[in-house]
Amino acid sequence: MNWTEVSVKTASEAVEAVSSILMELGAAGIQIEDANENLNYQRADETVYIDWEELNLPQVGAIVSGYFDEDDFDPAVLPQIKAKVVQLGEFGLEYLPGEVVVKDIDNQKWATAWKKYYHPVRVTRNLTIVPSWLDYQPAQSDEKLIVLDPGMAFGTGTHPTTRLMLEALTIVIRGGERLLDVGTGSGVLSIAAKHLGVGTITATDIDDVAVAKAQENLALNPVAKDIDVHVSDLLKDVAADNVDIIVANILAEVIHPLIPQAWDKLRLGGYFLTSGIIKDKFTEIRDAQIAAGFKIEQSLQIGDWYGIIAYKPNPDDVNEFTAQG
């Protein structure tokens, strides 16, 4: 089987959205080449060898490539891709140049070439994301490994929004909490939360492909063996309530309808952690959470991306975890 490669030249902040567009329109897999990955690798353990010439990452922006079965590929999908990419500008995402390039590629190259972009990456002081096909040994005694098989659709978990949520989890987790992971994708946040001591986790995604991938990744991490993951439109199909933490790394436009659902599911003093928020949307999302009754404890930032640590206040406006800490 051969493949048609459809590549979109875009801004780094749009890589996840463009990936979703390509998958929605029939891509069997995704490859991301992002100039910002240079920063991620430089933060990783210095003992991890990176062949920069082999990676050949773009100097600026990103290239997101989708792979379509050559026999079933319909060129009519190309203007649809272009239109949806341009539409990202309406959501406050920088997508330019937005150029779409098409070429044919043989199956053997597609099946293996993407793996060269994935290497162990230290994402917090003691959490390292490791591709499942690599033999990596912890460099320090308290280093915890998150083993992922990103396939060709869900990335390595090193995007700035993911790193913001990992940092937020590190800040708020005390141990034994009940957590909901909304829009779990690869499952990276749920796995990290388990390593950090969370007790019970329910993970959801609206996409059954994402749920299947998350289940595969959870199976690679013994610490995550008891995590429940299933399809749900945000929290509509989640029975759990009175939870301690809700985490959502999703687009700002999707955070809006999640806010009242999160309020209803959280216990008093519980945390609402959100990211996927581009700079232009930060004030809007922060103010929407405040209007719903949440208190903002802290905001986090990497480049143009923001994360928010909010909580559902007790009547006396004292956060339980903060009071204990």
Automatic annotation (TrEMBL):
A Pfam family it matches: PrmA
MF annotations from Gene Ontology: protein methyltransferase activity
Domain of life from the UniProt record: Bacteria
UniProt key word Cytoplasm: yes
Family membership noted in the UniProt record: Belongs to the methyltransferase superfamily. PrmA family.
NCBIfam families the UniProt entry points to: prmA
Protein name per its UniProtKB record: Ribosomal protein L11 methyltransferase
Organism: Periweissella fabalis
